[in-house]
Amino acid sequence: MSSFPLFDLPSFPLQTVLKCMDPTQVVELSFLYIHFKAALRTFQLPAVSIEWCIGGLQEAVIVDFGSTKMGFFVDEYEFESEEDKWNIGGRKVDVQRSTSGKGFDLNPGTDSLKVLESVTDHLFKILKIQKCSCEISGQVDIKNLFIWRFSTNFFNFSIHYFYSKMTPEEMTWMFENLEFHNAILAIRMKNFKYTKKVNTVNIELQCLDWVDKNSLLGMGYSNISIRFAPVNLNSFIKQWMNNQNDALESFYVYDGKISHRKNKIEEGIPMTQSIFQKADYQLRARSTSSDIMDIQRATDNRFATVIFSSSIRQTDFQLLAWHEDKHFKYCCRETKKRFGIPVKP
To answer: What is the domain range of residue 231?
Structure first.
């Protein structure tokens, strides 16, 4: 019995066959057979996202197809079991199936980033990728990182530079040339302030050395999170009170010591018992507690709900600003009526 002549199929029937196959098998075949790769390039297989993990304990490129994921993981140790050799970017690379069954381990020998760049180049030629994400840990050459060849726009972006040095020039280049939807920035930098807005919708900060605290809440971020960094919450709340027509929806702080200075946080800020129901904010709140108050600013009469939450594991603070066009449609009937919003019968 002869094998099925998959590579001899015309373009349209081939697309139909490939859509019925496991996408991870399709990608694997594209690395093994040049003709198969060429056929894929004519229509490209859809993929939800691609993620790069650079500089951490294990560098990788991970593709999410929605129904399944597959990764290409750099392994610097010699493989104990028998491996294959793939031609990746013009060089022979030892490859074996990952023990997790979710992709392949690569042993490039040297220059792992060059191999990941070649893998990325291959994937972008055969896949139609919707979103990109990136996680950087440790010291890397930011300006010359190969990833920027393929995308400068990222849905999720995180960088951890607590124990490595980043120069002000590198930080400025990164923030002025890259765009994010969600950004997690764990960067230590003394004697430098970045005073412009980072090109992101939502931002999480794990160090405030380089941040312009006086204008943070008015920079146009939708959601701001601060973790493990000491902050003057009283000052931040007053900053929000003095703003007008800002984009901020949520301001969250976790540092483990908030409950010990709650009175100082509220000092000089008129707060009243919340008029919102738990159902109004439970989808937005990181946590809920009985200590929930409202504040209202005079600049535009916008309300915000302030939540202090304390438990054995964590103590945190959250300010939820209420935007009529975004949040009130999810509120309960009583809240809508209180604010004069039409309620369906």
So the answer is: 5-243
